[in-house]
Structure formats: C-alpha cells, structure tokens
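ok trying this again, last paste got cut off
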Amino acid sequence: MFNQIDNLKCKLSLILVGVLLFSVAPVLNADELAVGDAIAIVVHKDLPVDNLTLEELRSIFLADRQFWENRTRITLLVRAPQSDERSFVLERIYQMSEAQFRQYWIAKMFRAEVPRGPKIVLSTGMALDLVVAIPGSISFTRADAVTDDVKVIRVDGLLPGDEGYVLK
C-alpha cells in the first residue's frame, strides 16, 4: 500500500515539475526572427559530431536519442516560451504546437522515459553560455548570434548560410 502511495507521490511530483518547467514567463526583449533568418544548431565544441540529418536532430530534440555516440548524455537546452526561435523550432523540428510540446514532455517524464525535461534558457546569450559550460549539450539560436565558443552542426550536410538549409 505504501509503495503505491509513494509511486503516486513520485508521479505527481514529476507532473508538478513538468508544469513548473514549462510555465516560465514570456521572454522580454526577445529579438525577432526575420523571414529568411536561419536557426543554427549548436553543440559543445568537444562533441565528436559535425553533421546530423533532420530526422536525427528531431530524434535528439524529442529525447528518443539521449546519448551521443561517445556515450555522453545529451543535455537539451530549449528557449523559453514566446521566443521566436522556440516557435520556429517547435514548427520545423518538433512539428508541434506549444501546448502539444508541453504535454509531450510532461507525459515523457511521467512515464519515466527521460530523467528530466529540457533545460529552459531565457536568452540567446544564456543558451550559448550553457552550451559552452555543459559537455553533451545541444541548443539552437539565430545563426547571426553564434560565437566561436560553440560548434555549429551541419543539418543534412548544410550550414545555416548554405542554399537549401532546412532551418530557414
């Protein structure tokens, strides 16, 4: 009986964490993503990855794939709600609405398929700083905001400035 109650408490805690995780206030002064701007996928410089297909990227962002080939755990860094970059990635990579995204992660944590949801970052600078600081991390940002401190990943063999890049 107590194990069932403890299990229920644990599940309710996960749901609560999920709700709190995704209830971050809208980002103030978010830079607008202009039509034609590209989103760069960035990772920690030491990761031995240079190219991902769009499907591999989707698998990573959905946490279906949770480890890099070198066995480093993937740490997913996602912009807070209301940022233009997040809206773009929800549409192009996740293929979900904001509500579907939230429900997806709450369900994934409830089923204990992931140890935690994505880390929510409030700004481009914060995303880049965390990619630098966390081995195994991956995030996205406007291509014009990328610094030399991170590695930009090719998507389907193309970089953000290339003709035919899928994240424009």
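PB: full thing came through this time. Residues 71 and 168 are 30 Å apart (CA to CA).
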